# Entry
Amino acid sequence: MGTDLWSFEKKAVEKGFFYIAGVDEAGRGPLAGPVVSSAVILPVFSHFPDVFDSKRLTPKKRVYLYDKIYENAVSIGIGIIDPVVIDRINILQASLLAMAISVENLSPQPDCLLIDGTFLIPSKLPQEPIPKGDALSISIAAASIVAKVTRDRLMERYHQDYPQFGFIKHKGYPTKAHKAAIRQFGCCPIHRRSFKGVKEYL
# Structure
């Protein structure tokens, strides 16, 4: 038997919580584009086979599960912080802010939060940070899938505006091709100007 992905949710239910939201973000590492967070409340102990850490799923599988999560979730919230704000407050603070916004966008509001990572977010709700939570909690895993697919689709849209950078392929991450494009073309409005690999070419 593998990890029980409902274990953190079960503990929350035992404490009397009912609406339990998993929260995760996508896009801390890229040189371009927003950081996107998702908060997801799943029906307690419902069956979601294959929902797992989004980084370990194929893009096709992620999109399939994204649709399933949207069909079955009690509520889904999204938080998006653009590169201008990332440059102003730094990527960690931007990620935590995106998470807080995604929680605020849930309806109904959750009773407690399971947060991927080691940091608390700016919220008065009871919350538990879980390192590597996207591989340990079904709710966080669902949030990781929604955040990743949402961000990928945004970057595919940005590709239409700035095709020379190849965002459709690397989604803004620091690949060889992306770095070469920055060297050749400089930066576009969605590049993170405070990031190494971008600021040298401003």
